[in-house]
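Repro:
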Amino acid sequence: MTRPLTVEGMADNEPRILVFADDPEQKARLYVCAKCGSVHSPEIYLATEERKHAAAREAAADCYNCKTHNNCQHCGAECHKSWTVCDTCRYQRKLEAAIEVPDDGGPYCAFDGDTYYTEMAEAQDDGLEWVSPCIISYPRIDADSVLENLLDDMHEDASVDDMDGVDAFYAAVEAFNKAQRTQSWFGDVKRKIRVPSAPAIEQEG
């Protein structure tokens, strides 16, 4: 049989506390948002009893469903309600953590962005202060992975020795990999290059 719950009286803007009606100690069981009625249970938290109840009460008081935004824990600016740090502070933290390196001649990526440049002057024209050097990759086939996938579809004790033409396959894959010329660029956010001023770029040119 379900035990009835009652609501402890609270101020209008405070979370409602649900207790069992027949509990002489009136121990808090659930915490409810006063605005939307979202229920928060302390039992979902792995912590001490005191901390579990504190967390559930905080969740009801700072109801995610009701809030329109969050405030950055570093600068106080408004940010999306699912974030604790704003875009500006997130960018600044990544920038501070990155190692400054010399200009390697490109290609470049806007730091922590998705705009790519072949020339430093292009980044300067866009008003950037920092770019990342790019990690350059080429299309490649992993011969070992291909064979492992084939073995997964064979009988239980199968091995590469049960296949024919393995040496020819490795040779073909090696030739294919060496022939690739198309590059893919990925910005390396762990490194940063300062974009020089326009006059400095012109002098270098």
